[in-house]
Amino acid sequence: MSVPSPEHRSVIVVGGGQAGVSTSYWLKRRGIDHLVFEKRTAAHVWSTARWDNFCLVTPNWQCDLPGHPYDGPDPDGFMKRDEIVAYVQAFVRKVDPPIREGVAVTRATRRSGGGFAISTSDGDYTADEIVVASGGYHTPIVPRMAEKLPKTIAQLHSEQYRNPDQLPEGAVLVVGSGQSGCQIAEDLHLAGRKVHLAVGEAPRCARFYRGRDVVAWLADMGYYEMPVDQHPLREGVRDNTNHYVTGRDGGRDIDLRRFAREGMELYGVLEDFEEGRLRFRENLAASLAFADRTYNGINAAIDRHIAETGVDAPPPSVYEPVWTPPAERPALDLAASDISSVVWCIGFAPDFRWLDVPVFNGAGRPAHRRGVSEVGGVSFIGLPWLHTWGSGRFGAVGRDAEHVVATIAERLALRRPRLGVAV
């Protein structure tokens, strides 16, 4: 009995979020046959891995998925979680991608005769091209130190946090001060919970400055169009922690010093738990100072832009600290603190183990130029700073997808010039 050949497509897209659906949009425009595999449901992360009060930190006008720009009533506002879900779901319906939900890709390898063999939870497939559109945030990071904490302490990762009522009574330790950590700490603080925050080396920026959203100023200055190879840090910018700020309640700064003045307890980086005590690095003052320097530095760049262009704007200002740590606190007795829960907000690790193709650099990260890898037939979409600041966001992921699909179309035309494939 002959074994049936695996189902073949010109392109297989792995991941059904906004990156994968954007890729499908451009593939459909070019008439290129393809499939999108999504191990859960399309764009599920926005509804399943965000807290109740989550909102965008960039204004709605920056939401510009292909063929689906934001057209709501508040372009300068910040969509809340349910609005984001509705926006992305409408995009999926509009594109109507050939998506197979609930299908996980378990392995992809190069075939000796060309193209790729793809194993999935739904069987085997082959393809001429693979687009990895699953992003870079796959595995929640929780340190092994967490195993030392008493079993009575509730522990969640940021993707599991929903609201303050979800946690047991008592104080909460939030670990990490990136966007998620600061916003979750604020969510708990506003709800009246006692919060202890382990502060990392994350930068911050103003929400509004000199009469406008800082994002609007930076857009005018061309920051969001700067390709990664022109950034002062080059590819090193991909390692940077995002600036903390919020779009909550119409948008405002997040000032950890103000939170401390209001009763939030701040510490340096959490390093260990030993003999009933949490141990912290003595870097709180330095971390707060770094965040403030970044804040003032961005504002100073806006000042220069205003001076150079002659734009009429309110006068400049410089942030002055409203609170200074009285002393570094290297340790905290867990029982005496009344901490009953910990929310880990230290990010995610990528997991590309299923992709058995030599497309990774010495650090184990995809090596590519604007999403196109050096191995013909493998592309990436939706990674942070894949090409510009907006590559992993609604603002530019569609443009990156268009570029990748154009490259794919050229390669398919060269491989199959006589088949009449629409490219």
From TrEMBL:
A Pfam family annotated for this UniProt entry:
Pyr_redox_3
In its UniProt entry, the species of origin is given as: Hansschlegelia zhihuaiae
Q: What UniProt keywords are attached to this protein's entry?
A: Oxidoreductase
**Name this protein carries in UniProt:** MSMEG_0569 family flavin-dependent oxidoreductase
User: Can you tell me where the transmembrane regions are?
Assistant: none
Q: Name one GO molecular function term.
A: monooxygenase activity
Enumerate the InterPro entries for this protein: Auxin_biosynth/cation_transpt (IPR050982), CHP04046_FMN-dependent (IPR024000), FAD/NAD-bd_sf (IPR036188)
- Name the domain of life this protein comes from: Bacteria
